[in-house]
Amino acid sequence: MRFRPVRSRSGFLPALLLLLLAAPAARAQQAGDTTSTRCGPPLARMLCVDLDGRPSIDEPAGPFTYQWHMGDGTTLTGPTVSHCYKERKNYVVQLDVVVEKTDEIRRGQKYIPVNLVQQDIVDFTALPTRVRVGQAVAFEAPEAQLLACRNVQFIWDFRDGTLVQARTAQHVFRRPGTYAVRFSMRGYGSSACVASHCVSREVVVEP
Q1: By C-alpha distance, which of 54, 46, 65, 53 is closest to 93?
Q2: Which domains does the chain have, with CATH numbers?
Q3: Could you tell me the pTM of the whole model?
Q4: C-alpha 84: how far from its chain's center?
């Protein structure tokens, strides 16, 4: 059975880099981690797969009807299917084949694991995203992970001159404005972990 890698609607999920610095968080900004102009919003979390059952069926009894049970209650038909999952979980896809000449159902012709958990994730939450000056905002990154890296750092750049190194943080903005808060991750690892990856979300601060 051949199938393509999991991807998001906006494209394939990037292979995330990782590199841990033992230096203070301020050095991360000096190195360009959080000030990068390429620090955009997180990718859409809806995850999609493309599956092709034709290579696994080569018997002379065809033609066949392909029935895909996607593991989340969804059933699709056709030799090739595309499906988007709403939750980042592990699924097992079951492919049943119906022999059209005899209506024989060959259940479990293929079982395909779809692992949406073992992926790099750079994302965070900010609550609330609209506050008044002096009101605290909670920042968390519960799902953030770089699987190929060790000793991962989590760096917050609140875009008002404040940097914090932690997985979670609270911050109070002292001036009104719109702040594109940036979350960066670094860790020790392979040569792919040379530069940090970051994402941003806006927080609106009213007077």
Answers
A1: 53
A2: 15-42+122-206 (2.60.40.10), 47-115 (2.60.40.10)
A3: 0.58
A4: 13
